[in-house]
Amino acid sequence: MKKLVLCVSILAVILSGVA
Fold this sequence. Notes:
Protein name: PhrK
Structural class: mainly alpha
Largest sheet: none
Radius of gyration: 9 Å
Number of helices: 1
Strand content: under 5%
Number of strands: 0
Helix content: over 70%
């Protein structure tokens, strides 16, 4: 479960960086 949260937060950082 912790890995899923980590992946989601990394994805959010990438998306906010792109946006």
